[in-house]
């Protein structure tokens, strides 16, 4: 009987792991499946329905519930993120709690934006949240759509998503954005006026001082 060379012995032996799992030696292993996300429906309609509900949750958070969202993104807390549920409800949770529950991956958007809340200004801060929500929604949808394994289905899903305004676009069209824009403009005008008044007052005191020295 022909014996294997020592350096080829491992190649000649049957795959013991394959024998234990019942898999034929040399066969292609089954494709891994992603964890099933809570509430995920592996159809174009189901995923788009979830996308729509989560999108509405984000829009409600940055428009109707904008004041509540601002309070919950307290800079004194650890990194927090905004999470949109598939039932249209939103919540603010810590980044660590997101990591502890793999079924909720990817972590919600706007991680750490509570730390810069008071430095960006309300309007710019909300716009940044809206942009990150859009990125998260796309990532979430196409992560779930990996179950479809069909290019045509994913193309249809993308077309459905593109038929809607993004969260950022919808925010720019909202009454909340218009109101905050007016408030920012008024604050800027009042700040400029105050600076001009202060400069005029300084000039007046300088002229008075110079007149007294003559």
From TrEMBL:
Residues 1-32 are annotated as: Disordered. GO terms for cellular component: nucleus. Keywords: Chromatin regulator, Metal-binding, Nucleus, Transcription, Transcription regulation, Zinc, Zinc-finger. Its main location: nucleus. GO terms for molecular function: histone binding; transcription cis-regulatory region binding; transcription coregulator activity; zinc ion binding. The keyword Transcription applies. It is found in: Nucleus. Residues 44-171 form the Alfin N-terminal domain. GO terms for biological process: chromatin organization; regulation of DNA-templated transcription. InterPro entries: Alfin (IPR045104), Alfin_N (IPR021998). Residues 13-24 have a biased composition (Polar residues). Histone-binding component that specifically recognizes H3 tails trimethylated on 'Lys-4' (H3K4me3), which mark transcription start sites of virtually all active genes. Belongs to the Alfin family. The PHD-type zinc finger mediates the binding to H3K4me3. This is PHD finger protein ALFIN-LIKE. It comes from Eragrostis curvula.
């Amino acid at each position: 009987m022909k014996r294997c060379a020592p350096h080829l012995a491992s190649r000649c032996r049957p795959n013991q792991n394959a024998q234990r799992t019942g898999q034929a030696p040399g066969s292609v292993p089954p494709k891994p499946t992603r964890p099933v996300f809570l509430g995920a429906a592996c159809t174009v309609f189901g995923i788009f329905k979830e996308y729509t509900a989560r999108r509405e949750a984000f829009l409600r958070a940055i428009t109707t519930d904008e004041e509540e969202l601002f309070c919950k993104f307290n800079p004194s807390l650890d990194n927090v993120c905004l999470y949109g549920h598939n039932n249209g409800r939103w919540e603010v949770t810590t980044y660590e709690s997101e990591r502890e529950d793999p079924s909720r991956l990817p972590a919600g958007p706007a991680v750490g934006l509570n730390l810069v809340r008071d430095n960006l200004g309300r309007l710019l801060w909300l716009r940044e949240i809206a942009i990150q929500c859009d990125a998260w929604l796309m990532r979430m949808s196409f992560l779930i759509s990996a179950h479809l394994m069909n290019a045509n289905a994913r193309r249809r899903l993308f077309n459905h998503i593109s038929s809607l305004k993004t969260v950022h676009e919808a925010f720019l069209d909202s009454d909340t954005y218009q109101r905050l824009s007016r408030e920012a403009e008024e604050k800027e005008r009042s700040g400029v006026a105050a600076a001009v008044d202060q400069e005029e007052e300084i000039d007046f005191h300088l002229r008075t001082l110079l007149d007294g020295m003559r």
